[in-house]
Amino acid sequence: MEQPEDILYLKQFVKQHPTNKMGWYLLGKHYLQAGKEGKANYCFIQAGDIYEAFEQESHPLGEAQLEQLKEWDKQQKKMKLIRKTMFIALPLLLLALIIPINDLIRKGTPSKPSPNTSAQSPDVGVVIVSQQQLRPVGYSMNAIIAAGDKAPTLSMAIRLEENKGWKQWVGSVRYLMSVDRGTNDHKFEVSMYDRDSCVCEPGDTRAINKRFTEWKEEQEMHWTLASGIHHYNERNGKWPEKLDDLIRPYPNNILSGEGEGMKDSFSDVLTKIMMETKNSNDSATEQINQDNKKQEHNSSDIVKNDKSIGTNGLFQEKWNKPLEIVIDTSKHRLAVVQNDVIIRSYKVGLGGEQTPEGNFYISEKVRNPNGTDNGIFGSRGMALSNTLYAIHGTGDLDSIEKDESLGCIRMRKADVEELYDLVPLGTVVKIKNGTLPPDAKAPAERFQLAPKQNETNPAKVYQWLN
């Protein structure tokens, strides 16, 4: 009598352990009991001398039949390998065809350059593949193919370390693949770096690691700049005209200084954010009109934006969402996040029940509160929603990871100074319980802006709930 659960278990076992002869023998016995003699014989052949030891006889099949089954087994394995290889190669083949076609289209249809769009694609682009994605190569290639001629010169797919649904920006990186189409769009080279994602010998990751590390530093600047542009527009009801509009003296210090490459990239970042905002508003208006026409539509009908490429070549939905701060009261952690990526995570001191939960925003940023960098509020202070609660430094380092404040968020000097530069005025702050991973990893190099304006406020005596 056939036992489906046993057969299913043994099939999975021999698939994971193809050299285990006892597993093949037991699976053959179950197939024999089920009356599937052909499958049973195949399993007994794989069992080899284990079959002979337990049955005390050689396999009853003749030598010729035995060789035929072995040859059939070889062919099956070969076909399986070919199918797996084709699954990986097909997207690459498609991309190789699309790129020359796009090149021909551009040559055959000259167009005038638009003053509102960037003339060049990014040099480097990155697809961040979730650990939940079972087909990382196909997923990455689909994103690159969809970008067409807007795809960066070099596109790479990576996996970041993940914890509780959060991707860790500061953590281990697993390189999957890269696609290099060359500077003239005619060269096309695909490199694979992950043994589990391809039927191949992985390539050397040293060169790609260097490019990614450089890109990563640029991306942090882009996140801060893009967030500053967003909050300037939110605060003033208009877009900034130049970078200096964001770097003003207190209390209009949207950004606390200038970062490397910000001035050169400001125009492109601003243009792309304006276009993305317009497209989002148009999509929202269209959706509202559709909902008004068809009242029976439910929430599942809402149009979902396609994956797009950010200002620094990041393949991501909602790439222009500004940075946010999330504070986990149970773990004493403060994180700077962008979508589901934790950019920075710090250990902080809190006030237990005196630290309020809810949504706030950074309403004020000040250097050296009360005229000193070593007072009770440290060298930096960021007020929350015009209240007496603030994120600030502290001279009491033993209070970090404890509930000893009157409600404010205390940080170490190096941490609060990096946070001050990283997040603009207007940044959303969400104080919750149990939402962040427990670890807090420091980056190899701190994010830093060069101060350009006076951000002190000597006219005010701060009395935050320290």
Overview of this structure, please?
With 466 residues, the protein is of the alpha/beta class. Among the domains are: 4-61, no CATH class; 83-109 and 120-204, no CATH class. The chain has helices at residues 4-16, 21-33, 37-47, 49-55, 63-108, 136-147, 206-236, 262-293, 413-422; strands spanning 124-128, 154-163, 166-180, 189-192, 308-309, 314-316, 324-328, 333-338, 341-347, 358-367, 380-384, 390-393, 409-411, 428-432. Strand 2 (154-163) and strand 3 form a beta hairpin. The N and C termini lie far apart (75 Å).
List keywords for this structure.
alpha/beta; 14-stranded mixed β-sheet; 466 residues
The helix-and-strand class reads alpha/beta
Average per-residue pLDDT, rounded, comes to: 83
Residue runs with pLDDT of under 50 for 5 or more positions: 101-119, 295-306
User: Which strand-content bin applies to the residues?
Assistant: 15-25%
Largest sheet: 14 strands, mixed
Alpha-carbon Rg, integer: 29 Å
Helix content: 25-40%
> Secondary-structure element order, as H and E?
HHHHHEHEEEHHEEEEEEEEEHE
State the assembly state of the protein chains: single chain
Distance between the termini: 75 Å
Please tell me what the overall shape is. Answer: elongated
Tally of alpha and pi helices: 9
Annotation, overall tally of beta strands:
14
Describe the secondary structure blueprint for this structure.
Elements: H1 4-16, H2 21-33, H3 37-47, H4 49-55, H5 63-108, E1 124-128, H6 136-147, E2 154-163, E3 166-180, E4 189-192, H7 206-236, H8 262-293, E5 308-309, E6 314-316, E7 324-328, E8 333-338, E9 341-347, E10 358-367, E11 380-384, E12 390-393, E13 409-411, H9 413-422, E14 428-432
Parallel strand pairs: 1-2, 1-6, 3-9, 7-14, 12-13
Antiparallel strand pairs: 2-3, 3-4, 5-6, 7-8, 8-9, 10-11, 10-14, 11-12
Helix pairs in contact: 1-2, 2-3, 5-6, 7-8
